[in-house]
Give the backbone structure.
Amino acid sequence: MPPDLPRPKYTALDDSLYDYLVGHRSPDDAVVDELREETARLGGSAVMQIAPDQATLLRILVSAIGARWAVEVGTFTGLSALAIARGLRPDGRLFCFDVSEEWTAIGRRHWERAGIADRIELRLGPAAPALRALPEEPWLDFAFIDADKKAYPVYWDEIVRRLRPGGLVAVDNVLWEGEVVQADKRGEDVEAIRGFNDKVLADARVESVMLAVADGLTLARKRA
Ligand SMILES: C[S@@+](CC[C@H](N)C(=O)[O-])C[C@H]1O[C@@H](n2cnc3c(N)ncnc32)[C@H](O)[C@@H]1O
């Protein structure tokens, strides 16, 4: 920030303010509640699931741009996919990429229950080669990146080149629990996220903003 200007206003969250915020969005339905409960029973890995407010935001973004074609990298037990698919046009399609058959099987059951399974095509295996195999022209309306952090730059490039002008890409975990600004933090993942965030900033193909949602969500729009 320029030093002679006052700091812009922002509100730091604590648990009670976060609960208030989550409680003041359109309520989830039984499918989402049960998916969250089943994921929580997995134990430690459940932390990978996106936050409730993130799921609502994804659905709103997808439906706001009238998206028909979407891609997700990192599906886990399927909450973000459920949100994106629900925001798509009825004739829309979401291509999901994940390496885990076990976790995505949980998602498949809940997508069926939600009546949107026919909008989702799950492709199991490493995402990078699968993305490279997608059509080259700019056909994508929306993408969500939430998988292995070191490969974010690869996912980004494969997605942005396929994004139509005005299309959106959302990227999770860009604040890495605040470690992006802690110089003594030198882990592989935080270094990867720092490098990725700088790459997005330098990418003239998009305009972007980092949102303080959950663990940080970058939202980028492809320029015309
Ligand atoms: C943070 S979780 C995704 C959470 C999910 N978006 C949700 O809403 O619950 C990351 C996922 O990325 C997957 N993953 C990790 N490396 C991958 C790779 N190379 N290709 C595809 N998926 C990968 C993992 O199996 C895991 O399910």
The mean pLDDT is 97. The beta strands are 69-73, 93-98, 120-124, 140-145, 163-172, 206-211, 217-222.
